[in-house]
Dienelactone hydrolase
Amino acid sequence: MTVNGLAGWSESSFTADGKTLPVFRQGTGPGVVIVHEIPGITPTVQQFAQDVVDSGFTVVMPSLFGTPGDPMNVWTVAKSVARVCISSEFANLALNTTSPITTWLRALAADLHAELGGPGVGALGMCATGGFALAMMVDPSVVAPVLSQPSMPFAVTPARGRDLNLSPADLDSVKARVAAGCPVLGLRYSGDPAVGGRFDTLRRELGDGFVAVELPGRKHGVLTEDRDEPSVQRVLEFFHDRLDG
């Protein structure tokens, strides 16, 4: 079945925090919420999500912006950047602020965990949504958070490039979860300017609880457009380690 260009994925919607958004789902096994990058659920995002499904997980992909199935190009990126920049749901420049959309994402993760059971669910964000997995782990249902090239707030200044897109209260909650034994996996290309100094902040704030995968070069999409196969396998291993009962 093809739904909006996503062959093999079922479409539904999820409502929380006064918002209803489309959600695509496939697979069996422990749950993983994959939050797409700019410009949306592109074919490379879908391919990565399919790999997670094929590894034995139930994957849920919300569509936050863009048209599912559209490729990454100058036009689709421009449209999505404009959407993110004007939306109050994304704290794209503000410091020490959690993006409001993550409240909806936490509810989605909690709902998936309530349905599937087990130790919890995984949460993976990438690019503009990379830091969302941190905000999602404020909810105890998220036990396998993954940040791929976290790029919000946009690194237009050094201070914004170091910011984790979290309020002080949410950062305290994340640090408590990590101290209690929930590790955070992060991936980036070391020369990616969009990530800024966030990995240094994550190391400082989370200590050994932050597991960094840093690749050489100035590429960006670790799991998608500039896919690094060992990094994909590292994410799958992390999900299995944390989620298999």
Summary: The radius of gyration is 16 Å.
